[in-house]
Amino acid sequence: MNNIILTGQLICQSDHETAVVTEFLPRHLELTLAGSGCISFAVEQSDNPWVWDVSESFQDARSFELHQARVKASDWGRATANIKRSYSVSGL
What we know:
Blueprint lengths: L3 E8 L3 H20 L3 E8 L5 E8 L2 H13 L1 H5 L4 E7 L2
Antiparallel strand pairs: 1-3, 1-4, 2-3
C-alpha cells in the first residue's frame, strides 16, 4: 500500500472567501486529523492572505477516498465548494 500525498493551494478570490476558510477550517482540521488513515494534514495561510498552502498524507487510497467523501458531505465542503483549488496528488 502506498501513502497518498496531496499538496497544493486553496486560492481565495475575495476577503469573503478568506473569511469562510477562516471560519470553517478549525473544525475541518479537527475532523480530518481524527479520521482513520490520516497521517498528517495542514492548511496554512501563505504570505498572500488569500492563498492557503495545503499538505495532506493518508495511509492508503481507501483512507484518502473516505476523507474526500467526508469532505464533500461536510459543512467545510459545502462552504468552500466554489473556492479555487490547485492540488497535486501522488501515490494513487
